[in-house]
Amino acid sequence: MTFISLKMIIAAAQTIPKEDNTQQNMDDHCRLVELAALHKAQLIIFPELSLTGYERENAEKLSFVPDDPRLEPLKELAAKHHIIIIAGAPLKLTTDLYIGAFIIFPNNTTLLYTKQFLHDGEEINFIPGNVHNPQIILEDESFSLAICADLENTVHAENACKAKSTTYLASIFYSPNGIEGGLNKLQIYAKEHAFNVFMANYGGESYKFQSGGKSSFWSASGELKASLNVSGEGLLVATKAKKSWSVKAIETT
């Protein structure tokens, strides 16, 4: 028998990455995981390449490997708070470099996701990958993960729908010029595919570009439930009770 709780709580973190300072970024992740755990979250997602900031030329130097010891603080928090943590980093697999995400479970299991579609220019430093594309199951919810340009290709969301995912988790770095288009596309996906959409973006500068913020949650009907500000760090906490979602925004800066 599978036990399904009466309430599910998930979170999206909007972060301000520090350039060439993975340790400070890790400290910020840990602080936000602790905050999410205080609100009893069972899953938290961070933006694209959250552990390093968005980097191209320095990605090789900053890259993580699957069993990277730098992930230990997140693994400890996942176990301590029984929370699934999704954090991004350049991912080195043998000789290939990907834009990746680590999916860290409370039982010390870690799965990988690799970005399937790249923005123009990213192909100079990264390769696209579609081998690592797990579906996350949490009680009666199933989650598909997307990283930034993935959502620009409609086939990606269509595949998540075919997999019968109930929530589309988008980990992105969008600038102010691109964020409105991204928001519109994600809202359309929620309506067309009848799944919730939860998006985490940066709230500060990375790669010498300002980010567009506005981390958001849409219900499966396409209703925007809540967004964070254009700039600044924060947390969105989404709670499902009796099959209905409510969302609150927590601004931390």
Quickly describe the structure:
The protein is of the alpha/beta class and about 250 residues long. It is built from five helices and 13 strands.
* Named CATH topology: Nitrilase/N-carbamoyl-D-aminoacid amidohydrolase
- Termini gap: 43 Å
**Biggest pleated sheet:** 7 strands, mixed
**Contiguous uncertain segments of 5+ residues:** none
Rounded mean pLDDT is 96
From the spread of the alpha carbons, the general shape counts as globular
Assign a percent range to the helix content. 10-25%
What's the structural domain tally? 1
Q: What is the CATH homologous superfamily assignment?
A: Carbon-nitrogen hydrolase
**Percent of residues in beta strands:** 25-35%
Number of strands: 13
Query: Helix segment count?
Result: 5
CATH architecture label: 4-Layer Sandwich
- CATH class membership: Alpha Beta
Rg of Cα set: 16 Å
- The sequence of SSEs as H and E is EHEHHEEEEEHEHEEEEE
Structural class: alpha/beta
Describe the structure.
A seven-stranded mixed beta sheet has the order 5-4-3-2-1-12-13. Strands 6-7-8-9-10-11 form a six-stranded mixed beta sheet, covered by helices on one side. The chain is an alpha/beta fold and 253 residues long. 46% of the residues are buried. The radius of gyration is 16 Å and the shape is globular. It has a single domain (7-251), classed as Carbon-nitrogen hydrolase (Nitrilase/N-carbamoyl-D-aminoacid amidohydrolase). The model has no long low-confidence stretch (mean pLDDT 96). The protein is built from five helices and 13 strands. The protein has helices at residues 22-38, 59-62, 72-81, 154-162, 176-193, and strands spanning 7-14, 43-45, 84-93, 96-104, 110-114, 136-138, 141-147, 167-171, 196-200, 216-218, 224-227, 234-241, 244-251.
